[in-house]
Amino acid sequence: MHLFLIECLIQSIMLVYCLFHWQKLSGFILQSKEYLITKEFDKISSALQMISDALSISIYSDNLMEMKAEALLLLRRYEEVIQFCQETLHLAERNSICFCPGEHSESNNLESCCSVKLWRYHLIAKSYFFLGKLEEAQQFLKKYEQTKVMECRCEKQSQQSISSFSMAISELLRLKAAGNEAFHAGKYSEAVEHYTAALLSNTESIHFSAICFCNRAAAYQAMGQILDAIADCSLAIALDAGYSKAISRRSSLYELIRDYYQAANDLRRGIEPSCSSVDIKKAYRKAALRHHPDKAGKSLVRNKNMSDALWREVTNEIRRDADYLFKLIGKAYTMLSEPTMKSN
């Protein structure tokens, strides 16, 4: 009799415990969904924490995993979205298998497996898009389309949204490719038009816009419109502060207009504070070789009507400017090599 009472007591305690956690889990889900649906950005971090807490209780919940990925996306933690979706896909596929007997069990298995893949492919594609990696985004959208064909019952609204997203990416890639093709063919004005069209068509992926601004800067430079090229590089850097290609290109452009102080600043900026001493030394050697005074003026073509005295004056001035820039590069290297200066 006592044993029976103890067992009843244990079952009651377990029931209360499970009920408590279920209520807690339901509260987390409802509150988090509200934040995600209304996109209350100041509360997304709280939502992410609640979702993580809920996942600690229900570790196999694919709905919670999807909510976590959406929260990370809203927080612009795109690399984490990609990593999370890829790491949890295999686990989700394994746990989505339907073991229920019956004639529809196979179709249920297919639908479940497709479902766990679809939202992951979609969010991975979105993350790559926002990172400016449109080719990778397009690959995952193709995976999405291939999975969708497997008779998954998905909402029409979602399908329309995916199709529009896929078409937008294809158009942006087409415009960028057309700009690149025109540039390599020496049709710089046409390249500018294509890059501009891509910029006007894109309002969401700031990293892709940075790439287009940088590419358009190259076209402007080839046309001799140096100030326009500098402006585009500056826009690219404003959108993506760590875009080394834009920083390097602007440094070269500043050098062309003999603004050596700004050129040196960009060369120094191109070396990340987190770089090791070996990386800094490599970057310095590359810059030093490129801007060595002995190489100054070698690309300059002498006009036939230019006198020897004027030619010497021009080459001497170029050498003096190059020497000044070379010293600035050396100074930047010295500063970055000092641990205390590097941290500043």
Automatic annotation (TrEMBL):
SMART domains: DnaJ, TPR. CDD domains: DnaJ. Residues 259-344 form the J domain. Signal peptide: none annotated. One of its GO terms (cellular component) is endoplasmic reticulum. This is J domain-containing protein. The lineage of its organism: Eukaryota, Viridiplantae, Streptophyta, Embryophyta, Tracheophyta.
